[in-house]
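Work Package 4 report. The design task specified in the project plan requires that, given a folded chain encoded as structure tokens, an amino acid be chosen for each position. We show below one input record used in the internal validation round.
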């Protein structure tokens, strides 16, 4: 995570992806978690990322 701008975790539900992400990002103030599991359309991803970054009012 110190060398890449984006890290994506994939795997079956319940395998611990969220816990791993939270533990790995602990202590990194520049890290954000964007939950994508609930999205049902690929075009919703940018909006979810913008929301996770707290930039909802920013125009894409």
């Amino acid at each position: 995570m110190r060398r890449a701008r984006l890290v994506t975790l994939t795997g079956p539900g319940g395998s611990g992806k969220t816990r791993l992400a939270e533990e790995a990002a602990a202590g990194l103030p520049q890290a954000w978690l964007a939950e994508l599991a609930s999205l049902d359309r690929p075009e919703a991803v940018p909006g979810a990322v913008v929301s996770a970054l707290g930039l909802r009012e920013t125009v894409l």
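Residues 1-60 form one domain. Validation will be extended to a larger panel in the next phase.
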